[in-house]
Amino acid sequence: MKKYISIVSAFVLAGSLNAQWEVIDDFEDGDLAGWSEVQEVDNASVLPTNTVVDDPFDLGQGKVLEITHGVQAVGSTSALNQTVRMAIPEALRIVTDLTDQTKVSTFYFKVGRPVVGGSPAEVDTVFSLQSTENEDNGVLYYSSGSVIARYEKDGGIDFYDDTTYTPTKIANGNGPANDTNTYYELWFVVNHSTLANPGAKGEYDLYIKGGTDFPTQTLLATGALYRSAAVKPLDTIVIITSTGNEADKGKDPIYFDDFYVDNSGLNLTSPNGSSNDGLNVKFVNVATRGLVGANAGEELIAGFVVLGENPQKVLIRGLGPDLTDRGVSGVLADPMITVRNFAQQIVATNDDWGNAANNADVVAAIAQASNSADAELVDDSADAAIVVTLAPNDVYTVVVESATAGGSGVALAEVFELDNQ
Q1: pLDDT tens digits for 15-34?
Q2: What pTM was estimated for this model as a whole?
Q3: Contact 125, 253 (CB under 8 A)
């Protein structure tokens, strides 16, 4: 069943991974070979542009793609739109695997917006993976996209899930916008093979890293559904800019770089090594705290990834009562944890850690973990904890909810990496 991430951190645990990134375009050749554009002209006072330029943020990116929105003609009631697209080389297209509907591909790129005239750039830009089977007279539109995200004027990066956009960051006056003059890295883990089921929509997870708001790679969405189903290969990168239906909703530059794909499976490394190279990454006592509600869909969900060639033993805890001793009020009285893999299969579950089947392992694991954190638990507490060995190269979620009907309160989800011996 599809879950939404409400409060979440992504944890990369253990191991090494031989990345299989294939470059689609990193713009270092200085041209836009393979890219094409469709621009509206009748309602423009300043035409949109797209070109390759030196990294304007001076962050070592070399050459990057600059796209400007243009300026809508005075008095025009129609938004000024531009579509910039690239046909993905045939060998790199995301295709349906009829033999393995759990196989995923990973699509990656960077995006950033500058400061213009002392203010954050005004942008309204959609970026998507599409199939040319959805073309209308040779044109691909917003509605024909499958895997879709956008950069909005309010500074938020949204992703599309089935029928609507969902913010990846609180915006619209409820929180700060994403940073300017920096690049956000985006990883789309795409399960196109679900389309082997007639009538099904593909789905994807979204990770982000960048700026002060996402200093570490963070899982933002899991199981987001395509906007438009596409049984045939996702064969085109499509970027659409718009001035919107309000004055200057989008008129300034936006920058893209490093379009890569890995069709061999999950890959949460950074192609150029700027983050998460997958080399012996080890984090311990990574945690997410939040409010668990009394209703379905109000669980606390934390996502993490095990990378490498070998299984990894972890201690996973869902704390409520233990938080009282740490000065937290209004805690969840009886937390229960459920661990699921990418396919949403239940891997492990526990309610009251003292009743765990591997209680001795939990006790030993807590002692081991206590070297890095206050990991002690009261013997008869209702806190949940379990030790489980997880398969590598998979995405996992820890769901913390109330074991008793109607329970709610503050809870903490924790994952400790343990020695495998």
Answers
A1: 333 348 999 999 999 999 99
A2: 0.65
A3: no
